[in-house]
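Input for the complex:
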Amino acid sequence: DAGVIQSPRHEVTEMGQEVTLRCKPISGHNSLFWYRQTMMRGLELLIYFNNNVPIDDSGMPEDRFSAKMPNASFSTLKIQPSEPRDSAVYFCASSFRGQGSTEAFFGQGTRLTVV
Amino acid sequence: GNSVTQMEGPVTLSEEAFLTINCTYTATGYPSLFWYVQYPGEGLQLLLKATKADDKGSNKGFEATYRKETTSFHLEKGSVQVSDSAVYFCALHAGGTSYGKLTFGQGTILTVHP
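Predicted:
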């Protein structure tokens, strides 16, 4: 398996523009997580899904952020409109919820810069 | 709620020095515990894990023992290398209906000099 695939790897956009980050989880995994990482706040969980259903979005910072998972192999995180303080590395992770421990597998991240 | 506390960083060591990064946790029930490593420019990778009390996880010379009595999962390595320079995250999975959600510590930056 190729692992969790995120695109794009880097995104530079102007303030006010819409940004869409994409994630393809590992095949067979049933949980998907979106994280944001900054120097100031560390690693923050934004939202997670189980079997394509959002379970907890309490980490989403504002209504400007939204996430969808239309099927088991694809998820998006959208920021509209983007602001400079959204600049961060965004990680997607997936795991299989089953017997035993459930370690998460991370993608390589999308580095977002809003200017 | 669940939480993970790691020792303050950054940690700077010379090559072949002994490494300890402290991690303590608060959780209900019987969590599984993990150490993840993040190399520059990359995502987090699982380094080792332990699923029950007194289990020892090990990988690449790193070890950590699940101590329920002290609610700790300290990471150790006997002789670090320059290539171990990275950010290390301690994490727990609470089990039950947490759907695989991990609770992470704040991360500890490790720099190893030749």
